[in-house]
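Checked the freezer inventory, then went back to the computational side. Two predictions to log before the end of the day. The first one is the construct we discussed on Monday; recording sequence and tokens without edits.
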Amino acid sequence: MPTLTIGKWNGLKRTSNEAGTFSIVAFDQRDSYRQMLASKTTYREAVKIKQAVVEALSPYASAFLLDPEYGLEPALYLHRTSGLILAVEKSGYSGDATYRRTELYAHWNVAKIKLAGAQAVKLLVYYHPKAGALANEIESLSADIAEQCRNHDLCYFLEPLIYSLDPRLPKASPEFARQRPELICETATRLAATGPDVLKLEFPVDVTFDPDQSRWRDACAALSEASPVPWVLLSAGVEFELFKQQLELACAAGASGFLAGRAIWQEGVSMSPESRQTFLTKTAVPRLHQLTEIVNAHARPWTAFFSPAPLGEESAFAKYGAYSGFHK
């Protein structure tokens, strides 16, 4: 079984529940977040909306995923029991819709995420395993972030989103839907080899074109078999009731929890402050509780994948520059 250093082991403990499963709320949206807001919304107002969501939900989340543009100030309001994950990539992608590159900030990086007190780094990439040189480029980027996370002893969550390389075959088409399960499994296998500790993955079936839940279950089981590291389910903005169904099937088939945002809080963004607070308290918090109950009942803990570095092994502690000095 692979072993984890002190920082990574404690980082996964801080971002997971007591059972070692994940109930993580994502609110690292930036470009898409602005599109959800009224055009007259100021930057300060956008920050305050994120803060309200963080304050309402973080007492019940194992961790929160935030961004450096709108999320650093809200991170100050995290509940003491909630871990912090920060996004390292810019929002969106460069290139065209069939050739997507992930871009990083010039002045934001893994080292600064460590300084901000986060336990983990999240990288989102657009990926297609048949993209040739571009796929290799994305794999190299992920491997580089993984190395930086190892150097800073931070956990690394990788979020690959598949897309179509053929403009005649959109992602939301029955033809692409038939490819989706295999593409997501191959993506998980290939990108897990680049060094992430956790994969944040799409549901492996496009349920618009395949309503058969037995095939959903089989696809989730195949994904668990394909991924050598823990994987958590993202919500992709689907309605809450559908996400709840997907999560239960995914966790029963080997997923380790969820890292989801819009399915939990999206309706509250456009509300008045008073209505938003009511929505968060009366709707979003109960949603989070329901999802966590599913995770607690069915999810596979990350401790099934990793063990801590052996205490008697000096090499495991050499990077801290202390073990040999204290134990001679």
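The second is the one RB wanted added to the comparison set:
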Amino acid sequence: WHKDTELPVGVDVVGIPGGFSFGDYLRCGAIAARSPIAAAVQRHAARGGHVLGICNGFQVLTEMGLLPGVLMRNAGLRFICKVVALRVATVASAYTSGYARGQVIALPVAHHDGNYVVDAATLARLQGEDRVAFSYVDNPNGSMGDIAGVLSANRRVLGMMPHPERASDPALGGDDGVALFAGLIGRMALA
């Protein structure tokens, strides 16, 4: 990833996982957003390809400019690692189509810098354009508008702080994340 300059041929979805890229020493996601592969990810998104950024991946997407805003230090200045309740804010995307609008789901979070910040005009635009994918029921980190995840204008890029991959089997404590991946796969199978 950090030396590659092109995505493999035929890639449908680019996933950028959590995991403290480059140690997040400068600013969360800032160095990874300038990796050689970043231009290929941006071209993939510009062509209408799907891109999913989870936790640190969401931070990378904002640093790349694929999503608006920035992820700042949590309001309580502490690392948060727990399962949180989320409200599905829209079903108008491949990622959220497997849920019901307003459905409350439980997904884990594990972050120190998950406080989503945008200016007031951008917040109003995201809400007005139905681009907030998920919102926190009880905001754990101070995110503006209780935002846990946002979509790009074409709804093919999703950044979210919670970890749906960590809620994919009852043995892991829950399976509320499965619908995100099933919805994405289902929509892509129809394409």
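For RB: The domain at 13-190 is CATH 3.40.50.880 (Rossmann fold). Strands lie at 13-16, 50-54, 70-72, 80-88, 104-111, 115-117, 132-136, 147-151, 157-160. Let me know if you want it refolded.
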